[in-house]
Amino acid sequence: MQDSFVHKGKRKILVEYLREKIGISDENVLKAMNEVPRHLFLESVFVVFAYEDRAFPIAANQTISHPSTVAEQTELLEVQEKEKILEIGTGCGYQTAVLVTMNAFVYTVERQKDLHDFAQKKLREMHLRPKFQSFGDGFLGLPTFAPFDKILVTCGAEILPIELLKQLKIGGKMVIPMGKTDEQILYRFTKISEKEFEKEEFGAYKFVPMLQDRNK
Ligand code: SAH
């Protein structure tokens, strides 16, 4: 399947909705979301709804996040070009594609093999290459590539992943939903020094859970 004028048109309307109704103001986020063809990440039955603000099932009982959630999380991350960003929860690779399109150096981890493989193939086909794509447990981060300017967690953690905070640069930010499985609060941690963090809160969301260990 290709990107078409119809898809581009629908995407433009979605981006205006993100700006006007959701209140996204980071032009780089809006520009990237206007460029990345979200429909190419979805199963064919959902393609017609790709530019509605909806989440959809992907492989391994996971979901692709709402476009508004992707936009809000990315905006909170305050992404700058060439920053090293660690993403936990590659899923189908849509959020990864948005970050790569923003010219960030992206390192992404997924614990479901099917999704890791799917995203790798998809991103290659689209010539949107993250720096490194890992099949592993995101609770451990990627110590070989640390420290990171930013860390984005796209699944809900019941406990704070301490390893990830360790892998953040001083001045770096981590955006992470935390809480029980039925609802999480979105937080942004800013690393002030090795031991001090500022913690901000951004409302309730529902993410798939962050689980430990790799699955197969
Ligand atoms: N970024 C995706 C969201 C995918 S949903 C998007 O663009 O829509 C969250 C993903 O986190 C799922 O694919 C799930 O398998 C993954 N996940 C859950 N726990 C994880 C862990 N410990 N390490 C890595 N990935 C994890």
Structure description:
The protein is built from six helices and nine strands; from the N terminus they run ααββαβαβαββαβββ. The protein is α/β, with parallel strands linked by helices. A seven-stranded mixed β-sheet has the order 5-4-3-6-7-8-9. It has a two-stranded antiparallel ribbon with strand order 1-2. Strand 6, helix 6 and strand 7 form a beta-alpha-beta unit. Helix 1 runs antiparallel to helix 2. The radius of gyration is 16 Å and the shape is globular. The chain binds S-adenosyl-L-homocysteine. S-adenosyl-L-homocysteine binds next to strand 2, helix 4 and strand 4.
Entry keywords:
single chain; alpha/beta; 7-stranded mixed beta sheet; 6 helices; binds S-adenosyl-L-homocysteine
Short description:
With 216 residues, the chain is an alpha/beta fold. It has helices at 5-22, 27-35, 67-77, 94-101, 113-125, 162-166; strands at 56-57, 63-64, 84-88, 105-110, 132-135, 148-153, 168-178, 184-191, 197-205. A hairpin with a 5-residue loop joins strand 1 (56-57) and strand 2 (63-64).
What oligomeric state is this? single chain
Q: What is the rounded distance between the termini?
A: 30 Å
Computed Rg: 16 Å
Largest sheet: 7 strands, mixed
Ligand identities: S-adenosyl-L-homocysteine
| Helical residue percent band | 25-40%
What is the general shape?
globular
Percentage of β-strand residues: 15-25%
> Could you tell me the mean pLDDT?
97
Order of strands, main sheet, comes to 5-4-3-6-7-8-9
**Unreliable residue runs:** none
Beta strand count: 9
| Sheet/helix structural class | alpha/beta
